[in-house]
Design brief:
Blueprint (H helix, E strand, L loop, with lengths): L2 H37 L4 H10 L6 H17 L3 H29 L4 H4 L1 H9 L3 H22 L10
Length: about 160
């Protein structure tokens, strides 16, 4: 492969990863909006849009999305609504981390579920913060090259020592 093909494969994989992130943001934002509407939190559509947009920030985006609804509940009603918002956050975080992200990466970026769950954890241990940040796009690129080599009849293998 020449440089142009490498760049096409890399940018195609990054585009697919970005499409997966956009779908993830849309779904998570919708979950926030529906959940907050059911709980009767003021400005639920705003918090849903913000929750979706903040999904593009790895790790901290979901936590940042929690601040607005919690603050509004604290100022307007307090009590059980704040706990319901925390429960909603936990449900969305678990669904996103264990179901949405792996499935979207599998269908859009062609990254298998078995690779998309442990790799950010392992890279996060080896390279704190940055490992988790670069793991998903890096996986998309690696699996794009594996698929490309299989498509052209080559076997993807590591170089021998």
């Amino acid at each position: 492969m020449d440089l142009a093909q490498h760049l096409r494969t890399t940018f195609g994989a990054l585009k697919n990863w970005l499409v997966a992130r956009a779908w993830n943001a849309l779904i998570v934002g919708t979950l926030w909006w529906l959940g907050l509407t059911i709980i009767h939190v003021p400005w639920a559509p705003l918090w849903g849009v913000l929750g979706g947009l903040l999904q593009f920030i790895p790790n901290f985006g979901a936590m940042l999305a929690l601040i607005g609804p919690e603050f509004v509940c604290m100022v307007t009603t307090a009590g059980m609504k704040m706990i319901y918002v925390l429960i909603l956050y936990a449900v969305i975080a678990v669904l996103d981390g264990l179901v949405l992200d792996p499935l979207l990466m599998k269908h859009t970026a062609r990254v298998p579920v078995w690779a998309s769950i442990p790799t950010p954890i392992i890279l996060g241990i080896l390279w704190p913060f940055w490992g988790v940040l670069v793991a998903p796009p890096l996986l998309a690129i690696i699996f794009a090259f594996v698929k490309r080599s299989q498509k052209h009849g080559q076997r993807a293998r590591l170089p021998s020592p």
